[in-house]
Inverse folding.
């Protein structure tokens, strides 16, 4: 009988270096995380290259899909930021598609017998990655907000039309809420990916343990098996939803930067 | 193997898995180990940067171009369809106009003809009436003459008869003049 091997739920998040850069240092080594970033980005590039290679009046299947993505994000940017949001559209689009693909590729099954370094990996399940993306958004918000509005950007923290005695309290709350934005952005995405994969792994571990027990006990593996299927379906929803949420919040924050002085 | 043994076996396997987990977590969450943060940031920057560059310079403009072109084309086609529709409407109104003209003309002709015929009929009728009136008048005149002649003749006959009767009765014939006077008187006397 085939002996199934069960791993702990955290091993899937381990970073495993594949090769070092010629600098000799391991600091910027190419890891499994980097591999899946490259696979995801490469897939996006191949897809969009194929979709836009022969941009036709009557779109083919790929072009239709690309246009659906385009219109979706374009509508999102226009509805949230308005016409001034046009210049942020490539950023929001790249963000959305990159997060979507890296979330979703993490749900691909690993090929059995592969070395650990080549197992499926979700780059967005690492806080540092989501935090970097969140900081990128917040940096754009602050830099563009200051460039566009000058000191008027700080009106963001002082909503107009409030009694003066409320101001100190409100400014404090607004500043804290602004500072917590990158954290909430980063942690929301990271935690969703992390928790989803842990749950998947736990269910899968039950299945493997019960199946490897053999005999009648294997029957108890049926429930967690369908649990894995259900959670996988749910995770597909979560991957898309979290990419969307990240894009929407980015748009909302960019809208603050664009319209800070109008407050 | 008894069921009990199977269950303990499974429990052992689960324990082993938990031990694995504990081993992994004893080293801390892999996410919180800063060893690989620079590498992750580095490769994130490279992949995200390349993707952003390709998106903003190639892919998105291409898609935007295709969508724009289609929108223009559709707008053009709609314009053209609008033109065609307008032309069709013009043609229809021209047709309706000529139809109305023809109808009006036909009605005018009919009315003219009717009026002409009415005039002709009236003229004919008037002519006929006049002729008939003339004939009636002539006939009446003749009847009047004949009546007068007849009345004279009756008077003469009466006077003749009266003279003959008187002559027979008294053997003396009154003069013609007296007889006719007497007849005239008798005729003038109201009857009864």
């Amino acid at each position: 009988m085939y002996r199934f091997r069960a791993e702990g739920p955290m091993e899937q998040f381990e970073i495993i270096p594949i090769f070092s850069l010629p600098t000799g240092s391991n600091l910027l080594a190419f890891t499994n995380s980097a591999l899946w970033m490259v696979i995801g980005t490469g897939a996006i590039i191949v897809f969009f290259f194929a979709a836009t290679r022969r941009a036709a009046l009557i779109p083919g299947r790929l072009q239709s899909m690309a246009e659906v993505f385009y219109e979706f994000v374009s509508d999102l940017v226009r509805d949230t930021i308005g016409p001034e949001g046009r210049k942020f559209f490539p950023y929001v689009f790249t963000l959305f598609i990159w997060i979507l693909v890296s979330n979703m590729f993490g749900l691909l099954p690993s090929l059995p017998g592969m070395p650990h370094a080549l197992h499926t990996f979700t780059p967005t399940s690492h806080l540092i990655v989501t935090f970097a993306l969140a900081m990128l958004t917040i940096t754009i918000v602050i830099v563009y907000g200051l460039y566009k509005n000058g000191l008027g950007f700080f009106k963001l923290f002082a909503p107009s039309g409030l009694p003066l005695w409320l101001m100190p309290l409100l400014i404090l709350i607004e500043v804290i809420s602004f500072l917590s934005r990158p954290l909430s952005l980063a942690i929301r995405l990271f935690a969703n990916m992390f928790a989803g994969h842990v749950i998947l792994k736990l269910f899968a571990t039950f299945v493997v343990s019960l199946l490897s027990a053999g005999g009648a006990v294997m029957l108890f593996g049926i429930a967690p098996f369908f649990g894995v299927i259900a959670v996988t379906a749910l995770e597909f929803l979560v991957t898309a939803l979290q990419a969307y949420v990240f894009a929407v919040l980015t748009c909302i924050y960019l809208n603050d930067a664009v319209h800070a002085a109008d407050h | 193997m008894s069921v009990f043994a199977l269950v303990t076996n499974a429990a052992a396997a689960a324990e082993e898995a938990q031990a694995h987990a504990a081993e992994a977590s004893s080293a801390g969450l892999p996410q919180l180990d800063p060893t690989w943060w620079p590498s992750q940031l580095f490769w994130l920057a490279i992949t995200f940067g390349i993707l952003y560059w390709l998106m903003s310079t190639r892919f998105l403009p291409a898609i935007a171009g295709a969508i724009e072109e289609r929108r223009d084309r559709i707008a053009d086609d709609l314009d053209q369809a609008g033109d065609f529709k307008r032309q069709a409407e013009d043609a229809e109104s021209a047709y309706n106009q000529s139809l109305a003209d023809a109808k009006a003309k036909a009605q005018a002709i009919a009315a003219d003809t009717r009026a002409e015929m009415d005039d002709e009929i009236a003229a004919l009728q008037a002519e006929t009436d006049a002729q008939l009136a003339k004939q009636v008048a002539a006939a009446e005149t003749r009847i009047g003459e004949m009546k007068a002649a007849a009345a004279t003749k009756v008077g003469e006959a009466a006077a003749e008869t009266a003279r003959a009767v008187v002559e027979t009765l008294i053997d003396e014939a009154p003069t013609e003049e007296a007889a006719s006077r007497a007849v005239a008187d008798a005729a003038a006397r109201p009857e009864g």
